[in-house]
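Quarterly update, task 2.4: 1,3-dihydroxyacetonephosphate-bound model.
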Amino acid sequence: MRKNIVAGNWKMNLNRQEAVALAEQVLAQLPAENSTEILFGPSFVYLHKIAKMCTDNTHVFAASQDCSEHESGAFTGEVSANMIASCNAKYIVLGHSERRVNFKESNQVLKTKVEQAFANNLAVIFCCGETLEQREGGVHFDWIKLQLTESIFHLSASDFANIVVAYEPIWAIGTGVTASSEQAQEIHAFIRDLIIQQYDNDVAENTSILYGGSCKSTNAKELFSQKDIDGGLIGGASLNATDFVAITQSF
Ligand code: 13P
């Protein structure tokens, strides 16, 4: 059975006081019967603090937004997967388009980062998605297949159980333009089918596939009602506790 997951990617927003206040507000507003897995994705700087705030809630965890491809050593400013694990995070988000584009992260580098995460018992939210030009050029299916093939399809089926895939069309991120539920469902079904081909039906049925890109409280229900959409990776709307909690309750 795949899990419903709603992950907030706070990106480079919120100072320490604001981050703590946001986590407090979300935790206070969550209904007691919540069964969705909820993730906070703060800056590395507050990861330990935010993870600690989640310890009393069985469904809320912390996720880091990235990790180094290196295990340790002379890499000034980098943060290793081991450091992240020691802060009690549960997940690492890898392959976000903002990292791929702004920091030139290739599929090969991301493969190494996934291995670092797994070596430290962290689960991975692996992001993929196409540009508007790629979609208009009709190469988006091939592009997403390549992203998954080169970074995560080498994993064993048992390791793949610790992968969550996030489909984030770049043209929908922070733009206010959301993929229609049909467009999102089409890609999610395609990704699940690739997992069936690479592994088997069981693995595919147990893999959560999240949608990201201008997902908000007003469109989450429609998106999450699609057969292959198991939740969301939320940017802007995760910075407001009321909106974020509403999204977590949109299944
Ligand atoms: P927005 O929800 O702000 O479009 O961001 C999506 C995203 O990048 C989540 O990782």
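Highlight for this quarter: The chain has twelve helices and eight strands.
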